[in-house]
């Protein structure tokens, strides 16, 4: 594997020439789609994988495949060491301790794990240490109007199970949070404040520090959806002072089937587990069971060993290039996308103005053309984008649309990729006969 972009000491942005070298590490990008060179602008949904990640997973199965934490033979010991080393690598990457990293199948599972932990505490599970998580009628859970469904539906269910009330911070016309409403809504009744770090629709970067301060001032827990930030920017969860956070491997060069739940150690050790069974227990009798501390407390059953090892390889790849450089490059690409789309007649960019700092993505509504038709038009030209509501129906409803077309860039995209998408978008309305 090459690391053409330099080291983590460099804080300058990437360049097109460096990105072209990076692309050589990604076999899926070296192909044609519908007779055109592939332009992959759907990393907000899932990222492509470099050789080093593919090799790491294959190497595990070829040489070290065994169950972890369960055997005394050499392969079992090797597998366990690789598995736990992967945890250490990911922990360092996000500013956490090893016992604060829980392997999940994806970020959605992580959010459900936390929500069900609160629910289990609310019905008396977990003992005295878990009483801090008990919810009841009159308590409030606060989210935002801009959330992915994964950070909305679990809290709706938690409210229904406990009698708590779910409220939300509305967004402005440009998709930014109404912080005046946040200050009003976060009260002594607020028990949980949960929100996305970066919007998967608008690219808005939410004010984490301010929201954490407001939440902790009233004793509320903070849950951060870092799915669109962990792959794209340096992240220090301990410094951000959030209580829980989630992200997914498949959005950051790793395979599907692996996600991460971060939680402050003292909270994880007190939170009642969600999934129960083997490998997460101390003593089991026919009447009751005792549970291990985190992380094993939340890792029942056979684990995602090869995927965790591959995620660590992805983290190593990103670290070698430098997260600061990746963030700067994607900010340039995001601005180029937004500015290019905004310049086209009949194309509306959802979210902040093109000159406002955003993540490396932009979603648009094309007047007179359904998003699915826009996506098909671009796909015919080899350009892969996301269409639909991006699992964020309330936010689309706020913008007055049912669906949008999203282009999302990553470290392997060039300015030429962006320009190709803008050029193709400029031909959509004329192709469909829309004046």
Automatic annotation (TrEMBL):
Biological process annotations from GO: cysteine metabolic process
Keyword Repeat tagged: no
Catalysed reaction, written as an equation: (sulfur carrier)-H + L-cysteine = (sulfur carrier)-SH + L-alanine
InterPro entries membership: Aminotrans_V_dom, Aminotrans_V_PyrdxlP_BS, Cys_dSase_SufS, PyrdxlP-dep_Trfase, PyrdxlP-dep_Trfase_major, PyrdxlP-dep_Trfase_small
Cofactor list: pyridoxal 5'-phosphate
Keyword entries, A-Z: Pyridoxal phosphate, Transferase
Enzyme class: transferase
Domain Aminotransferase class V: start-end pairs: 39-420
GO function terms (MF aspect): cysteine desulfurase activity; pyridoxal phosphate binding
PROSITE patterns: AA_TRANSFER_CLASS_5 (PS00595)
EC number: 2.8.1.7
SUPFAM superfamilies associated with the record: PLP-dependent transferases
NCBIfam families (alphabetical): sufS
UniProt record similarity statement: Belongs to the class-V pyridoxal-phosphate-dependent aminotransferase family. Csd subfamily.
Function text: Catalyzes the removal of elemental sulfur and selenium atoms from L-cysteine, L-cystine, L-selenocysteine, and L-selenocystine to produce L-alanine.
Protein name: Cysteine desulfurase
Source organism per UniProt: Mycetocola zhadangensis
Upper taxonomic lineage: Bacteria, Bacillati, Actinomycetota, Actinomycetes, Micrococcales
């Amino acid at each position: 594997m090459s690391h053409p972009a330099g080291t983590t000491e460099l804080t300058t942005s990437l360049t097109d020439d460096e990105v072209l070298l990076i692309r050589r590490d990604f076999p899926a990008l070296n192909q044609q789609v519908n007779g055109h060179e592939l332009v992959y602008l759907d990393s907000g949904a899932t990222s492509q994988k470099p050789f080093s990640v593919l090799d790491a997973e294959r190497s595990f199965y070829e040489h070290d495949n065994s169950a972890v934490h369960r055997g005394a033979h050499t392969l079992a010991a090797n597998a366990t060491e690789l598995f736990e080393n992967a945890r250490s690598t990911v922990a360092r990457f996000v500013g956490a301790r090893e016992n604060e990293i829980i392997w999940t199948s994806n970020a959605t599972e992580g959010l459900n794990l936390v929500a069900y932990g609160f629910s289990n505490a609310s019905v008396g599970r977990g003992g005295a240490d878990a009483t801090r998580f008990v919810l009841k009628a009159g308590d409030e859970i606060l989210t935002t109007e801009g959330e992915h469904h994964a950070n909305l539906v679990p809290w709706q269910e938690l409210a229904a199970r406990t009698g708590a009330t779910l409220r939300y911070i509305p967004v402005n016309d440009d998709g930014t949070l109404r912080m005046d409403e946040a200050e009003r809504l976060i009260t002594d009744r607020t028990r949980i404040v949960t929100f996305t770090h970066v919007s998967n629709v608008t690219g808005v970067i939410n004010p984490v520090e301010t929201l954490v301060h407001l939440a902790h001032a009233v004793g509320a827990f903070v849950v951060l959806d870092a799915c669109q930030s962990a792959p794209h920017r340096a992240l220090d969860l301990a410094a951000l002072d959030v209580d829980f956070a989630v992200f997914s491997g498949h959005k950051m060069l790793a395979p599907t089937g692996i996600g991460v739940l971060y939680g402050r150690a003292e909270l994880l050790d007190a939170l009642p587990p969600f999934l129960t069974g083997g490998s997460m227990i101390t003593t089991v009798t026919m009447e009751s069971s005792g549970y291990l501390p985190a992380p094993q407390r939340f890792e029942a059953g056979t684990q995602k060993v090869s995927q965790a090892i591959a995620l660590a390889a992805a983290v190593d790849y990103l670290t070698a290039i430098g997260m600061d450089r990746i963030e700067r490059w994607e900010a340039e690409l995001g601005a180029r996308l937004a500015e290019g789309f905004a310049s086209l007649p009949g194309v509306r960019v959802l979210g902040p103005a093109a000159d406002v700092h955003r993540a490396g993505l932009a979603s648009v509504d094309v007047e007179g053309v359904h998003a699915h038709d826009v996506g098909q038009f671009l796909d015919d030209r080899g350009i892969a984008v996301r269409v639909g509501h991006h699992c964020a129906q309330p936010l689309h409803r706020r913008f007055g649309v049912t669906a949008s077309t999203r282009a999302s860039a990553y470290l392997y995209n060039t300015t030429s990729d962006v320009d190709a998408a803008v050029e193709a978008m400029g031909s959509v309305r004329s192709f469909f006969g829309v004046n």
